[in-house]
């Protein structure tokens, strides 16, 4: 079986830091805290990093944007399976990012390709737009969702038709919106309203503050896990011969 060269660790620590938009010192600090897996040591004792390290750095950044402390991020990452691929981590990041307000960023074509780590054809741009990763802003400019960019770029190499991407996006948006609505209703009726009735209790106030700070990452992780299990079951049922 041929090896997928795109998944091999080929980045030096300087290249990894530049691609992720952090400093080398930050990469080394995260490594000492166990937030990043160790690099693959190559010739001359040079460490090399791969897509998984990039995806994990992006996830750490998103969790920080959520207001999580470094200790909380350590606990969150410790609960994730050790064998998560770069693609799985990108899904985690995209779902975590969905809890934050829209934060579209302006970018030129050169900026976009630099952040994508590859050249992008007009067809690639159209596919990324269909996935909701970016939209054209006139001329050489784009408005892009940084939380979805890495996942979208990974999906460019998957042989899926443009129309199929649009249909899949519609399905995902409809069902995730429905899930968000039901979860919000459940939290409001079963947690928030009972809390308001006894908010004079200092212990209840402290408990609610703690829950509010950690609820979103916990729900995101639960959604990812449930979706992955359901998808595996559906694929197994769909493609298992009778």
SS class:
mainly alpha
Q: Biggest sheet: strands, sense, closure?
A: 3 strands, antiparallel
Would you list the SSEs in sequence order as H and E?
HHEEHHHEHHEEHHH
User: How many separate helices?
Assistant: 10
Question: Could you outline the blueprint of secondary structure elements for this entry?
Answer:
Blueprint: H1 13-20, H2 24-32, E1 40-41, E2 47-48, H3 51-65, H4 70-78, H5 86-97, E3 105-108, H6 109-116, H7 122-130, E4 134-136, E5 141-144, H8 146-155, H9 162-197, H10 202-239
Antiparallel strand pairs: 1-2, 3-5, 4-5
Provide an overview of this structure.
This protein has 242 residues and is mostly helical. It has a domain at 5-84: Orthogonal Bundle (Multidrug-efflux Transporter Regulator, Chain: A, Domain 2), CATH 1.10.1660. The chain has helices spanning 13-20, 24-32, 51-65, 70-78, 86-97, 109-116, 122-130, 146-155, 162-197, 202-239, and strands spanning 40-41, 47-48, 105-108, 134-136, 141-144. The model is unreliable at 1-6 (pLDDT under 50).
